[in-house]
TrEMBL record:
Residues binding substrate, per UniProt: 96, 106, 135, 223
EC numbers, comma separated: 1.1.1.85
SUPFAM superfamilies in alphabetical order: Isocitrate/Isopropylmalate dehydrogenase-like
Pathway membership, UniProt: Amino-acid biosynthesis; L-leucine biosynthesis; L-leucine from 3-methyl-2-oxobutanoate: step 3/4
Compartments it resides in: Cytoplasm
Molecular function in Gene Ontology: 3-isopropylmalate dehydrogenase activity
Reactions catalysed, as given in the entry: (2R,3S)-3-isopropylmalate + NAD(+) = 4-methyl-2-oxopentanoate + CO2 + NADH
KW Amino-acid biosynthesis (keyword) present: yes
Protein name: 3-isopropylmalate dehydrogenase
Subunit structure: Homodimer.
Cofactor: Mg(2+); Mn(2+)
NCBIfam families referenced in this protein's UniProt entry, alphabetically: leuB
Pfam family, any one: Iso_dh
């Protein structure tokens, strides 16, 4: 198959983790006889450095003309002084919204080999951690009005959390469809005891659930969900939640599986074109040190194969190669534990590619 992939390296560790993922893409091309045309474009800090704009029009055009997008991570302290509308993170929000990527899938699965890296007690880990966070990605407070104004002689700032019925409905459907292919349970996370947007959320989710009698629906307030993720993560199959709650809970979910460095994500809308990226940021503290964990990005490539290209086998081969390297005891620094060998980002990528 011929596929066009827009590649955005981004900032900080972005270029390092993308380089390793490209090694994997090349191996998949060779092994399965595909042709992946990689088109490199900039967004975020790298784009600001080149042309002053965090999200150049060319980047949008190339993404729209591609079959999918692979992204490292954007942002960093160097860009903190940028005006709000030209911050690297806003570029990411722009791509998500312009491509209509309203659904963000973030699997949280504990690799058996990384059990020691989980901060949770052994008996909690033993019960198993394997769930999927389905996060709404183009609505909620990140996309509502952001306002800072003067009132009665002091600065006042507010951000608006807003959802429409149709926005909730389409993401709820994704969650229920996802649950059908997994453990047939959806836990919808909101703050319906306080927020109107959450009350509407809950009402719509209950409506959508009527079309999925085979899937069990439960509801949880977000503060309790944060607690339950530490106390009893085995209870979850699919967690359905709004944009900001999903952002926070999926970072927490990544930590209980050992490290944020291994968690991939897929974002899509109504077409098969998706954007694939690790859930972590640009990690400026370790950028350029060959210390970054490339597995989250490599597993994002596996998700791309599965969700955008329907290449199930290719995805499986990548996942198995990652498993084998971990079996052999190799770890990047963030996954280090007793009796393991710490290697750099490059060597991790080489070893995974070699096993494909
Ligand atoms: P971060 O995820 O970049 O880093 C948090 C901690 O995790 C750091 O100690 C970092 O070293 C570590 N870490 C992250 N990824 C790692 C990897 N692959 N291997 C090993 N260790 C890893 O979050 P932080 O520090 O809050 O944000 C840094 C910058 O990234 C900010 O400018 C932020 O806005 C941006 N950001 C961008 C995202 C994106 O592009 N999707 C998502 C989150 C943050
Ligand atoms: Mg985040």
């Amino acid at each position: 198959m011929n596929k066009k992939i827009a590649v955005i390296k981004g900032d900080g560790i972005g270029p390092e983790i993308i380089e390793e993922s490209v090694k994997v893409l090349k191996k998949i091309e060779d092994k399965f006889g595909h042709s992946f045309e990689l088109i490199y474009v900039d967004a975020g800090g790298a784009a600001i450095d080149k042309c002053g704009k965090a999200l150049p029009q060319e980047t949008i055009d190339v993404c729209l003309a591609s079959d999918s997008v692979l992204l490292g991570a954007v942002g960093g302290p160097k860009y903190d002084s940028q005006p709000a509308e030209n911050r690297p993170e806003r570029a990411l929000l722009g791509i998500r919204s312009l491509l209509g990527l309203y659904a963000n899938l973030r699997p949280a699965k504990l690799f058996d080999q990384l059990r020691d890296a989980s901060p949770l007690r052994e008996e909690i880990v033993d019960a198993g951690i394997d769930f999927m966070v389905v996060r709404e990605l183009t609505g909620g407070v990140y996309f509502g009005d952001h306002v800072t104004e003067e009132k009665d002689g002091e600065a006042v700032a507010y951000d608006v959390m807003k959802y429409s019925e149709s926005e909730v409905k389409r993401i709820a459907k994704v969650a229920f469809d996802t649950a059908r292919l997994r453990g047939k349970k959806v836990c919808s996370v909101d703050k319906a005891n306080v927020l109107d947007s959450s009350k509407l959320w809950r009402k719509v989710v209950v409506e959508v659930a009527k079309d999925y009698p085979d899937v069990e629906l439960s509801h949880m307030y977000v503060d309790n969900a944060a607690m339950q993720l530490c106390k009893n993560p085995a209870q979850f199959d699919v967690i359905l939640t709004e944009n900001m709650f999903g952002d926070i809970l999926s970072d927490e979910a990544s930590m209980i599986t050992g490290t944020i460095g291994t968690i991939p994500s897929a974002s899509f809308g109504d077409s098969t074109r998706g954007m694939y990226e690790p859930i972590h940021g640009s990690a400026p503290d370790i950028a350029g040190m060959d210390m970054a964990n490339p597995i989250g990005t490599i597993l994002s490539v596996a998700m791309m194969m599965k969700y955008s290209f329907h290449m199930e086998n290719e995805a499986k081969v990548i996942e198995e190669a990652v498993g084998k390297v971990l079996d052999q005891g190799y770890r990047t620094k963030d996954m280090e534990s007793a009796n393991t060998t710490v290697i750099g980002c490059k060597e991790m990528g080489d070893r995974i590619a070699e096993l494909i």
